[in-house]
Amino acid sequence: MNAPLLQVKNLRVEFPTRRGTLVALDDVSFDIAAGEILGVVGESGAGKSLTGASIIGLLEPPGRIAGGEILLEGRRIDRLPHEEMRRIRGRKIGAIFQDPLTSLNPLYTVGRQLVETIQTHLPVGAAEARRRAIQLLKDTGIPAAEERIDHYPHQFSGGMRQRVVIALALAAEPKLIVADEPTTALDVSIQAQIIFLLKRLCKEKGAAVMLVTHDMGVIAETCDRVAVMYAGRVAEIGPVQDVIHAPAHPYTVGLMGSIPSMEDERERLTQIDGAMPRLTAIPPGCAFHPRCPHAFERCHRERPDLLDAGRTRAACWLHAARPSDVATAPAVFQPNALTDA
Ligand SMILES: Nc1ncnc2c1ncn2[C@@H]1O[C@H](COP(=O)(O)OP(=O)(O)OP(=O)(O)O)[C@@H](O)[C@H]1O
C-alpha cells in the first residue's frame, strides 16, 4: 500500500519557559491521503495552528518540535535544513493564513509574485508563467484577470486578496495546502464563497488540504475527515459524517451541540460547561475529565490514546471500558446520534 501523502506521528511541541517546559502538542498523530480534505477543529488554544505551523516548517521559536515525526510522501520533513524546507513549502506544500497580507508582498504586483512562484518551482519560461498566472487568477474568480494581474495587493478587497493568496498557494501545483482559518479575517458574507472556492480548486487540482477552523459548519460542508483537538491532543478523528452524526468522544458530542450554518455569525465553541485547561494546568488522566459528564475513575488517572470507537477513533476510556471501570462509571455513554443539521 502507498504511504499516505502526509503522516504526522506522535508529534510533540514544547515551549521552554522560565518556569519549566510547556507541552503544547502531545502525541499528535494523523494522516492525510492524497487529495483528501482534513478538517482540524477545536477550541482556541487546542493546538490547531501549532500543528499546521509544524507541518509547514514555520513553528516560531522558542517553540520546537521535541518529539515525533512528520513525513511527506514517506519522507521525513521535520528535521530538514531551512533552505530545503523552504523549497518544499513552495513546491509541495502551499500555505494560506488568516490574513491574506501575511502571504503577499505589498511592494510587488500580484502578477510578479505569482510568476516568481511559478518560475521558482516549475520549469516554464516567463511568457508561459504569466499565462498560467492569469489562468490561476481566473480560476479563483478574479474578474478582468488580464488587467488585475498588474495590480498591487492593496488594490484588492479582502476577499479578492484571499483569492489571490489561494492562487499563489496553488501556483506551484503543491500536493498539500495547509489553510489556517483562511476566512476568519474576511467579511462574513464572503466566507462561504472563499471556502467553497478553496474546496473546488483543490479537488480539481488534486491537492490535499488541512483546514484549520473553529467552525464546525465549515467542516461539515467541506471536509472528508475531521480531527477534533483538545488541550494539545487529538480527541477524536474520523470521517466527517460519522464524527458529526455519531461522535464518540464526549467533547465532540459537546461541540456538535450547535453547528452554526456558514451564513451565521461565527460562533465560538463554548457549548460545554467549563473551559479548556491552560497548558500549565493540564489535569492528569484524560485532559477533558473535569468537564466530562461520563468521567469515571480511570479517566482521572490514565491518559487515553486514540481507540477504535465504531467508525471513528476517540481518545476516551469509554471505548475500552473494562468490567471494573464500568462498575464505577456514572452513566452508560450513548453516542449522541444527531439528526441532520
Ligand atoms: N510563543 C508561545 N509561547 C508559549 N506558548 C505558546 C506560544 N504559542 C502558542 N502557545 C501555546 O500553544 C497553545 C496552542 O496554540 P495554537 O495557536 O496552536 O492554538 P489554536 O488551537 O490554533 O488556537 P486558535 O484557534 O486561537 O488559533 C496555546 O494555548 C498557547 O498556550
From TrEMBL:
PROSITE patterns: ABC_TRANSPORTER_1, ABC_TRANSPORTER_2
Location in or out of the cell: Cell inner membrane
Keywords: ATP-binding, Cell membrane, Membrane, Nucleotide-binding, Transport
GO MF annotation list: ATP binding
Chain segments annotated as coiled-coil in the UniProt record: none
Primary localization: membrane
One Pfam family linked to the record: ABC_tran
The ABC transporter domain, residue ranges: 6-256
Record-linked InterPro entries: AAA+_ATPase, ABC_Ni/Peptide_Import, ABC_transporter-like_ATP-bd, ABC_transporter-like_CS, Oligopep_ABC_C, P-loop_NTPase
Membrane topology according to the record: Peripheral membrane protein
Protein family: Belongs to the ABC transporter superfamily.
Name the UniProt record assigns to this protein: ABC transporter ATP-binding protein
Organism this protein belongs to: Caldimonas aquatica
